[in-house]
Amino acid sequence: MPPKAAKSKEAPAERAILGRFSSHLKIGIVGLPNVGKSTLFNTLTKLAIPAENFPFCTIEPNEARVNVPDERFEWLCKSFKPKSEVCDSNS
Question: What is the pTM for the complete model shown?
């Protein structure tokens, strides 16, 4: 059996970042028809998107912004007392 090749001691190459950096997180709910995507969307956003018991009830995509509570953000605001407090949100 031949000897194994020595591993390179060089630092691994950095991966290229694809897309644009943004402070807004964008998510999507994807799944099969009639499995509860609209119900989950209504629960997360506290909206009233129609969620009926037949396939393809929701054809048009729905969008909403949801504030994301974070204890670290609240601690920073209490510690440094900024002029304004703007919480992060998912869109």
Answer: 0.56
